[in-house]
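Example 4.3 (complexes with small molecules)
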Amino acid sequence: MRFSILLSTIFIGFFSHTAYVSGQTIHNSTAVTGFLDCLGDSISNYKFNIDEGEILVMPADNRSPNCTTRDNLLLNCIMRYHDYLNIVLYGSAYGDDTVSSSFVAAELNDRLSSHAISTVPIRRRSTNNFLKGRSGSRSKRQAVNGYYESYPATDDSCADNDQQSYFAGDCPSFASKYTSIEFYNPEPQAVLTAYVWPHHDCSQGNEKGYVAGPFGYTSCPKRDTYSWKGSFTNAASPWPCIGSLC
Ligand SMILES: *[C@@H]1O[C@H](CO)[C@@H](O)[C@H](O)[C@H]1NC(C)=O
Ligand SMILES: *[C@@H]1O[C@H](CO)[C@@H](O)[C@H](O)[C@H]1NC(C)=O
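Answer. The structure with 2-acetamido-2-deoxy-beta-D-glucopyranose bound is encoded below.
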């Protein structure tokens, strides 16, 4: 009897402490505001959603994102807040539940305030910061090797994973599903966007795009995945220098 009272006291103490700690870092609203400001006038080209701990950003005109062309500013803004916000690109070429319940940017902070899962990224592996790592030497060299590492796993937290190398643009496609995956960007001067599909052959839309800076890792999304494709965008220009943000 005495023992169980003691135990419950310990558990109450533990849970209230945990709640307090996560309450401090659940959403970084300064970074959310900074990210939305970074998008400037192009903000109306996007719609938003929140899925578990991910802030989904998708083109408002129902298409797949393209970070080297129309969505280059979006990629730059994601990279700028990469350490503080778990922002994920979403391909909205085909309607689904996520797209139909999406909302405009002005609603993001309000929606986050009632979302109880943290959107501050916790990456399984350490990410080298491009700016710290480069210490000021920003050459305009393009990606040199053009390959990236993928770590698909059959558990839901990237623990039981495999290492596979692919060239950007390839589409590995598997008959049976992986249930989580993360990616590593070995390029010194390029941002990797790795798109994952819950379908075969990198088709049918609904892809999610995860971003990794030079020598960095993406997060580990828990998602049924059958195919994926990596895409590099030159990191030196314009990111991390975008106009007035330089
Ligand atoms: C929130 O994000 C800003 C960048 O907008 C950063 O400077 C600040 O340190 C972050 N706060 C926390 C608690 O990580
Ligand atoms: C983005 O668009 C360019 C130009 O049309 C194209 O070459 C490239 O493959 C596209 N990238 C992706 C990831 O779709």
